[in-house]
Amino acid sequence: MPAMQSFALKTIAAVAAMGLMTGVNAALAQDDAFELSVPKPETEEAMPTDLECGTEMLSGSGPGFTDDRDQAENVAIERWMEKAAKVFPDTELDFDLAKDSNLSCAVQGLYSKCFADGIPCKPKG
Fold first, then answer.
1. Nearest CA to 105 among 34, 40, 49, 46?
2. b/e per residue, 25-56, with b = 16+ CB within 10 A?
3. Coil, strand or helix: which one is 70?
4. Which own/partner pairs from 79-86 qualify as long-range (CB within 8 Å, at least 24 positions apart)?
5. CA 61 – CA 8 distance, rounded (Å)
6. What is the pTM of this model?
7. pLDDT digits (tens, 9 = 90+) for 13-32
8. Which of 36, 42, 108, 113 has its CA 20 to 30 A from that of 101?
9. What is the pLDDT of residues 66-120, one digit of tens each?
């Protein structure tokens, strides 16, 4: 009888360990999702009110996923700036002045791909 109880306890422990591993894997899998929270350095209220803005929302992103989150953000903003320069040529633009701007990143494990969206704006005058 003690051998049967030992076998039962080992079986229960093995099943519990597999259940725990499944729960941990499910929790880790949730990290591979879209992370849409990149805080802006300034709030909308602090932006200048005398801006001239374009009419279309522009979007920029890098060519693929990278293991450097800062680089992914910078590439997305650079690509957005290239498109914004066509709207306001001969003007130094700033992504922080873009109307309805959003910088979001898709995350898969340690890799990120970011997207910069916004309507380009420049100071009037």
1. 34
2. eeeeeeeeeeeeeeeeeeeeeeeeeeeebbee
3. helix
4. 79/116, 80/116, 80/117, 80/118, 83/58, 83/59, 83/120, 84/54, 84/58, 84/120
5. 56
6. 0.63
7. 565 556 555 544 444 444 54
8. 108
9. 999 999 999 999 999 999 999 998 888 899 999 999 999 999 999 999 999 999 9
Query: CA 69 → CA 39, 75, 93, distances in Å?
Result: 14, 10, 23
Radius of gyration (Cα) for the chain, nearest Å? 24
CB atoms within 10 A of CB 71: 13
